[in-house]
Design a protein that fits this description.
Layout (H helix, E strand, L loop, with lengths): L1 H27 L7 H34 L7
């Protein structure tokens, strides 16, 4: 469904921007880009962001499905 594909693309864009900003903050604080701690921190945050994206997309999917079932329903 195009609306969900578009929403997913936007969520992915925001996820990637947040991950990039986090990596830059780590590097600005002196993290070693080749170090295990940098990779572990980045991986942990990437997992959190992916969980956020997945949960948001699931909520949007439920909303779209509900709207398709009851097109005359209004959002409150």
């Amino acid at each position: 469904m195009k609306i969900l594909d578009d929403a997913n693309a936007e969520l992915c864009r925001h996820r990637d921007l947040a991950l990039t900003a986090y990596a830059r903050r780590l590097l600005a604080r002196g993290a070693d880009i080749d170090g295990e701690e940098f990779r572990a921190d980045l991986s942990k945050y990437a997992g959190e962001l992916e969980a956020w994206r997945s949960k948001a997309l699931e909520g949007l999917q439920q909303l779209v499905e509900a709207m398709m079932e009851r097109p005359s329903a209004t959002l409150h």
